[in-house]
Description:
The protein is α+β, with helices and mostly antiparallel strands. It folds into 3 domains: 2-198, no CATH class; 220-492, Endonuclease/exonuclease/phosphatase (Deoxyribonuclease I, Chain A, 4-Layer Sandwich); 510-542, no CATH class. Helix content is 12%, strand content 30%. The chain has 8 helices and 31 strands. It has helices spanning 14-17, 238-248, 263-270, 335-353, 379-387, 393-396, 465-470, 477-481; strands spanning 2-4, 23-24, 53-55, 66-73, 77-88, 100-105, 114-116, 119-121, 123-126, 131-134, 141-144, 152-154, 159-167, 174-181, 186-188, 195-198, 220-226, 252-256, 279-283, 288-292, 296-303, 306-311, 322-327, 367-372, 410-411, 441-445, 451-457, 487-492, 510-514, 528-533, 538-542. Strands 1, 2, 6, 9, 10, 11, 14, 15 and 16 form a 9-stranded mixed β-sheet that branches. Helix 4 (335-353) packs parallel to helix 5. The longest helix is centred in the middle third of the chain and has 19 residues, at 335-353. Residues 1-33 and 499-507 have low confidence and may be disordered.
Amino acid sequence: MQILKRNVTFNPKFASMLKKVIYILILLPNLLLSQTTIKIDGFFDDWNGVSNTYVDDSSDSQGVDLLNFSVCNDNEYLYVKIKLADEIDLTEQFYNPAKVMINIDADNNRFTGYSINNIGSEYGINFLDKFIFDDSDPNFVDTLSLYYLDVIPLPTYSSDEFEIAIKRSFFSDTICISINETIGNDFMPDNGSIFTYIFNNCSTPPTSVFDFSKNDLKNLRIMTYNVWSDGLISNNRVDEHRRLLLSANADIITYQECRNTTYNDVQSFLNTSPIYYPYIYPDLNSGNLTISKYPSLQSWQVANKIDAELIDLPDSIYSTDILIINGHPPCCSNNQGRQENFDALIKFIHDAKTFGGIIDLPFNTPISFSGDMNLVGYSEQYNTIINGTISDTILFGNGGFPDWDNTPLEDQICYINDKNIAYTWDKSNSSIGDYPPGRLDFVFFTNSVMSVDKSFILSTEHMSTTLLTQNNLLSNDTKFASDHFPIIVDFILPTITQTTIEDYKNVKEEIRIIDLLGRDIEESRNNLLFYIYDDGTVKKKIVVE
Length: 545
């Protein structure tokens, strides 16, 4: 801990400030409240029903303008959403310089703590420098890690809007909040106002019972996991990884950070598992490793950190195969390297959808892109994946929407077990200056031809004893195994017994027959043909004389 001297004397101007407008949110009893469920995932539609909002004066900043903030809570967390006029990176330097702080008067007493913007702040959260001022002791200020208050801000990439979870266990039932951007000297609230918040549990926690099992055995389970520095062959972490592998029981797994993990190493890792994974596809250059219960028909290196496998799914179950793309683009400040990888990804997908080039997929073949995306910089990289907006069009082409129906890819937002928080990375043994938890790992997919039945982030640290026991896991397994968490997604794919992805209708109509190259063709014998139905399903068939 670092001890910093700071002036905490009471400002006598408070007497005149009492005459100014004070915004106090007096809330109705819980039964009369408009309940919502806040999910910390970097998306904001769930905030639409939150009424505890302060709207700032417009254009009152010399830098990035603060526009508004909203507040909600549940039994565990205080939730804050901040809206700005321009895109910033909350925890990194950015082309729009900004330094956002949240000050919390945890005891609702302006005479204690650090005097700022008409409140007495016990905790000052500094996002850019990544630490917390602790002014709860009147004699000195302590500096703490962001993990002390379990501060979780999302999205992890740049944005003009952020939502933040803050552990509320050190707060009284009534607090005051001040938010400021220090470079432009903009405050919310301003003009002498005070924002007072009374905890009311306006966010409803999950109530459903969570379990690991598939809802339908025909669903295809994908797991993606950054195992952290060859974790599958690390003697002091291999047992944790084996337990996680067994508990997930995925059909296909995309691992990252396996640059020194050879084919024989993977066989040794798997030899104690009762789950049979006969197909192992390591790339020691990228460090990506894909293992599967089903064979790959062909492999590609999409970019220096992205690999792809066309997995031959069993014809006795599925009417399609699936393209599995495994990615781990460069980390941290290497925005250009990440962008080049994602540009190459979109070029590859468009190549797969059209005749010619290095890959030709049958029409409507499902595509999944999973891995540790390291999306910690510019939001442009996320938008490239979703919308196919290529940055370097000279080298990689014009791009365009990646899905088969010329729409964006779907970002499958997963949440930790039965919680409403979506981070996939955190720092063990954290200290001042460490990055807060972030959403770095993703599963994207072509939702025009496939859908998701179940998904979750596997975190043993957040599991009940019952759930741990049911899945033969230990509470520290994910903490010791890696700094990332496994993501698990159950895909619904067209099968020979299902007639639609969306609603399982019993009647379907054939609308097209195409060949391997996507050309319309009359039904013929001794050729592989694809029968497309009005519900979006595809059936592959060979009629033999």
